[in-house]
Amino acid sequence: MSDKKEFVANSLKEAIQKAAEDFGIEEDKLKYRIITEKTKYFGHKQREIFIEAWSSDGSEQKGLEDFVKLLIDEMKMDLQFELESKSEFLRVNFSGEDYKLMLYQNGNLLNAAQYLLNRLFADDIGKKIYCECENYRKKKEAELSSQAHRFARQVRRNGKAIQLPELNPFERRIIHMTINKYMDLESKSDGDNFLKVITIRKKLNG
Question: Tens of pLDDT along 168-191?
Fold first, then answer.
């Protein structure tokens, strides 16, 4: 991995192009993270986006792969995994005889693995890391979205706020995304821990 450099441009695409040219590499060999976005008003609206970028030889992903292998060995579980790289994220797909242990108690072990991998590798890889097992997250997302729609209808009907039990970041994201579709409702997370409660209520001007 090369030294990291910062670049600024009027769009993400332009910033990536500038970084790739500076490093003398193809864009698909470039890793980056968005630092911040700003909008300036000097007679006209102008957007600026700041990124931190670096060239990659693939060693970061190899490090993640070796770590996951070690993790499975240390847990003495019969599991296999595959890495699925997308432009915006990297997915670690688990499978095997012990997959149910990964999903026990609402996927606690799967969530813990995802949290750990993001803390250790996401910055160097330049992508968010998601852990999946037997389509658990896809099924859970549909279930949570359905529940959120039901809660939204209830709040609209009686006007009373609803507080959901403690949820992990993945679960909270689905609830917030669903409630955000209702112009007259809002959702808010409360708490300082990994698990937080969510309150769904009518907007004051709704």
Answer: 888 899 999 999 999 999 999 998
| Domain ranges across the chain | 5-55, 59-134, 138-202
* Residue 44 pLDDT level (bands cut at 50, 70, 90): low
pLDDT tens for 150-168 read 999 999 999 999 999 888 8
- Beta-carbon count within 10 A of 133 CB: 22
Collapse the DSSP code of 198 into the 3-class scheme (helix H, G, I; strand E, B; otherwise coil) and give the result.
strand
Question: Which 3 state secondary structure label does DSSP give 9?
Answer: strand
Radius of gyration of the chain (CA): 21
| Closest-CA residue to 96 (of 78, 84, 109) | 78
Which pTM was predicted?
0.64
Amino acid at 171: E
Instruction: Map residue 134 onto helix, strand or coil.
Output: coil
* CATH class assigned to 138-202: alpha beta
Q: Give the H or E element holding residue 178.
A: helix 169-179
Give the length of the chain. 206
CA distance 118 to 124: 10
Neighbours of 86 (CB within 10 A): 10
The CATH code of the domain at 59-134 is 3.30.300.20
What are the DSSP calls for 111-142, one per residue?
HHHHHHHHHHHHHHHTSEEEEEETTHHHHHHH
3-state SS record for 38-70: EEEECCCEEEEEEEEEEECCCHHHHHHHHHHHH
